[in-house]
Amino acid sequence: MEIALPATSPDPSFPAALCTGTLRLSDGRQLGWAEFGASSGLPLLYCHGTPGCRLEAGLAAEAAARAGFRLIAADRPGYGLSTPASGRHLADVASDLVELCCHLNLQRLFLLGVSGGAPFACATACRLGTRVAALGLVSPVGPLDEFPAATPLPPIWRGLQAWSRRQLLPLGLLMAPLRLLIRAFPETFLRAQARRLSARDQEVLAAPRVRQLLLTSWRDALQKGYAGLRDDIASFARPWGFPLAGIDASTLLWHGSADLLVPAAFGELLAGRLRSCRTTLYPGEGHFSLPVNYAATILQGLTAASRFPASGEKSQWYTCDKKTTPATGEEISMDQRIATFLAASAFGVVGASSNRDKYGNKVVRCYQQRNRTVIPVNPREEVIEGIPCVARVSDLPPEATSISIITPPSVTEQVVKVAIAHGIRNIWMQPGAESAAAIATCEAEGVNLIADGSCLLVVLGYREH
User: Taking the CA atoms of the chain, what radius of gyration do you get in angstroms?
Assistant: First the structure.
């Protein structure tokens, strides 16, 4: 049974849904959904973030209407109007969405997964096969269980990874305080989140419209409890249970280099598992600013991708250029800084490692894959990846005018002082190597610095072999 009613807006500034409804699923559970955008447009199934609900799609309502998309967003089990499904997996949510597509008679459709919704969009694309015209993934969560232990991740992801391996306490017990905070004090939670995010994210979250929409979405999502949040997070941590390489649809992925909540490393890992994926990195953009500022670009990209079948070629990464970057100066400047850094004749890698699981090794191989002259810096190794090492930054030859730093922040502070004294003018601090003192030193000396969370592996399109 399906019930669809005209939607009411909780706030004059909140985007009104075209309609909202509930669907009785085959196992008796209820699924809530809403529609935004163009009522007779191209159907686009939207998978919301974590936590979130169908109302989150209102962020893209205006862009969808202009682009001619009928935006359909469903609450995952345990969120909003949807009945919980304890212990659900990605494939279970995909089954719910397939049922919704059948009830709405969607024979061919687009899929869009944002943040925590991306894994569910991938699972649904795998189920629907050639019925998916194009798949879009925005700031996506990747397969957490596949990250090497040495991967630098924010504490929340590292903690979840540790939990998935030991499971000493029930996840619901661990998540209960977070759910209570979001539900009872959403403004406090949002302010606490913003302080840990990039400048671009803080700017976007300060906008009343965006803030109100997110707060309304979170309140609605958690009105019945934290089951949806708990089950989402458990799904991220465990094996996904379906082959990402089995997705037939043309796939586009967008990520911000300054995403501190779901770092671009997630997008890199996910793209590498897909059979065919075009990925665009936006310098300086964060987790919230990317989908808000580039909604129209994302929808246009999906329309264009649907005109061409998936190529079957491995994923490629692109960095957006001036023409697609907002005219704010900062983002253009970072794009120019990256271009200046990469114009060097040779590159030093400080913190180079012979261990292929370490990022100090991956950066060396990344330069090799792009046929760049690279010189590992390591006082304890003679050769890394077939390349003779130098012991110190001061031993680098004059042509090595750019260095990548993959060291602990306390070491980074010493490295930049030696590098500057040696005449090096281009420094890239890989995520996790940044130090406030080191950044201040570079800025005071006028060094061309990249330390905004941008990852060289993402920008150059590193591939694991």
Answer: 23
